[in-house]
């Protein structure tokens, strides 16, 4: 299949699922994850109508976003940083990303506040929650969600969009996404505007949609095999 065919197939599945749920297509943002692919692929996707691109490593994303801006005149693309973010990379990421999906600790929050001082527009962020018992995985402990959410919601230069999580591979999908939906409601009780849910990837996005996902992070199903 070509890139256009893969994108069309995923778009078709998204539209079909949303129709069955009684949800509108414009409720959902498709973030195409272009990590490990060259800028040419992002440009081709842009030509096919994609406007939201996801990256998870600053050392790859920063030059790619820069080259893209140089090559696509008047671009309306938005770059989403979807991976774990080191605090010392906050300034770099804030220079090109419109959305950061992985705010999960105080040190990163402070770094992003400092990095956004000179931005004319607030940086949109998701609060990442860790659904597992593995502290090595990114995300705040669900028990600490509400106090941390209050801190993020009050941070200068940032706009809290909602919650982000990755479903555990060894747990039933429905149970994982139900957890995310419930945590989203907890977040909304603290920050009423933070109603968006970043959840769902190539292998599980339809289930994520059934549980309220608004931002899908889809890579391989659209981009094909990555160039490692």
Could you characterize the architecture of this molecule?
The protein has 228 residues and is of the alpha/beta class. α2 packs across α3. The protein contains nine helices and eight strands. The radius of gyration is 17 Å and the shape is globular. An eight-stranded parallel β-sheet has the order 7-6-5-4-3-2-1-8. The longest helix has 19 residues.
List keywords for this structure.
8 strands; 228 residues; eight-stranded parallel beta sheet; TIM Barrel; single chain; alpha/beta
Concise overview:
The protein has 228 residues and is α/β, with parallel strands linked by helices.
Set out the fold topology.
Layout: H1 3-21, E1 29-33, H2 39-47, E2 52-55, H3 58-71, E3 78-81, H4 90-94, E4 99-103, H5 106-115, E5 123-128, H6 145-153, E6 158-164, H7 173-190, E7 196-198, H8 205-210, E8 215-218, H9 220-223
Parallel strand pairs: 1-2, 1-8, 2-3, 3-4, 4-5, 5-6, 6-7
Helix pairs in contact: 2-3, 6-7
- Element order: H for helix, E for strand: HEHEHEHEHEHEHEHEH
- What's the average pLDDT? 95
Helix content: 40-55%
Strand order of the largest sheet: 7-6-5-4-3-2-1-8
Task: Supply the helix-strand structural class.
Answer: alpha/beta
The radius of gyration is 17 Å
Strand content: 15-25%
Major sheet size, sense and barrel closure: 8 strands, parallel
Separation of termini?
20 Å
Query: At CATH's second level, what is the architecture?
Result: Alpha-Beta Barrel
Low-confidence stretches: none
CATH H-level superfamily title: Alanine racemase
Approximate shape? globular
Broad CATH class: Alpha Beta
Number of strands: 8
In total, how many domains does the architecture comprise? 1
Number of helices: 9
CATH topology-level fold name: TIM Barrel
